[in-house]
Amino acid sequence: MSDLGRLEDLPADYVSALRAKNLVPLWPSLRGVLPPNRPIPNTRATLWRYQDIRPLLLQAGELTPIDKAERRVLVLANPGHGLDKMQASAAMYLGMQLLLPGEWAPSHRHTPNAVRMVVEGTGAWSTVDGQKCEMVRGDLILTPTGLWHEHGHDGDVPVVWLDVLDLPLVYYLEASYHVNGGRQAVLPGQGERAYGHGGLLPTPVFQRSTQAYPMLRYPWAEARAALLSLAADRPALDAVQITYSNPETGGHAENILGFYALMLRPGQTLALPPRSPASVYHLIEGAASVSVAAQRFDLVEADTCCAPGYTPVTLANPSASAPAFVFIADETPLHQKLGVYEVWPAD
Ligand code: GTQ
């Protein structure tokens, strides 16, 4: 590979003359934007322990009333992007949100897509597009682009959930904005009841095509049961994994980020090949280690970590007797739609 000319090799008055006309020479920066053989990610493998987050989040509950926060969230920020960018990866945002008994986070809608993975507490709900979704630990609740959503709490203990949004991408596209609305009327019809039985679809399904997102709540009890029954049916299957999908299209539940639940059998080690999308791992139940290249994180329940793309990730369940359940979010739908999705052979 030949060395390319540097900016310092050019006469300073030439560079100034270019810049005065909003022009920049490519060659000094060419290797930076098109590095040889593999991307140079800003995303760093990072671990956020729930035992660190929880007391600070509860403190936010004392410091900032909900009407001063609208959404009381501590952002899980990747230092590789700079904390103030509030990014977990190029396209993913992660936040831990706290709602206290009696609080209400008012209705709004926005262009970024979001999901909630419920971490602890009972009694809270999210109303999304008129569907009131109970929030139970491990449940996944979608708030896709453009749909009204608000969060309320009728219980008596703090409720915490993990928000996953494609905010960094939509913000980068200069397409991020929100609109405030009033309290939603709760409508009849709950997607998880109509669509919540695998392979048995309401007929004719395409009568519902006015609703781009027919199912908004994926109860953990159903996902966990699906994983256990898949594992029992396929004893030789390595990746006991399910994709949260749109039951009408069979595609990903949302357009930009992908969401999955993975079961690691007792003692299992699962090596994932390097893939172009960055990924996030949140432990729902059990114990798991996540090794990202040479770095290893030991996750206990409610811990969250991320891995850059193009990097091998190995998951392991240290328990000899209990399965581990991991919620995964990644940028696969985005990469596939853009045509940049790649899987590399393991080293
Ligand atoms: O709950 O609607 O973490 O609008 C960031 C932006 C949560 C929400 C976040 C949001 C929300």
Word description of this protein:
With 347 residues, the chain is α+β, with helices and mostly antiparallel strands. The protein is 18% helix and 30% strand. The chain has helices at 12-20, 30-33, 50-63, 66-69, 167-172, 191-195, 220-233, 332-338; strands at residues 46-48, 73-75, 93-99, 104-110, 114-120, 124-128, 131-134, 140-143, 149-153, 159-165, 178-180, 217-218, 240-243, 258-264, 269-272, 279-285, 288-292, 295-299, 304-307, 313-316, 324-330. A 6-stranded antiparallel sheet has the order 1-19-16-21-14-13. It has a 6-stranded antiparallel sheet with strand order 2-3-10-5-8-12. It starts with 11 loop residues before the first helix and ends in a 9-residue tail after the last helix. It binds 2,5-dihydroxybenzoic acid. 2,5-dihydroxybenzoic acid (GTQ) is lined by residues 71, 73, 95, 97, 110, 114, 149, 163, 165.
List the helices and strands and how they pair.
Layout lengths: L11 H9 L9 H4 L12 E3 L1 H14 L2 H4 L3 E3 L17 E7 L4 E7 L3 E7 L3 E5 L2 E4 L5 E4 L5 E5 L5 E7 L1 H6 L5 E3 L10 H5 L21 E2 L1 H14 L6 E4 L14 E7 L4 E4 L6 E7 L2 E5 L2 E5 L4 E4 L5 E4 L7 E7 L1 H7 L9
Antiparallel strand pairs: 1-19, 2-3, 3-10, 4-9, 4-11, 5-8, 5-10, 6-7, 6-9, 8-12, 13-14, 14-21, 15-20, 16-19, 16-21, 17-18, 17-20
Outline of this structure?
This protein has 347 residues and is an alpha+beta fold.
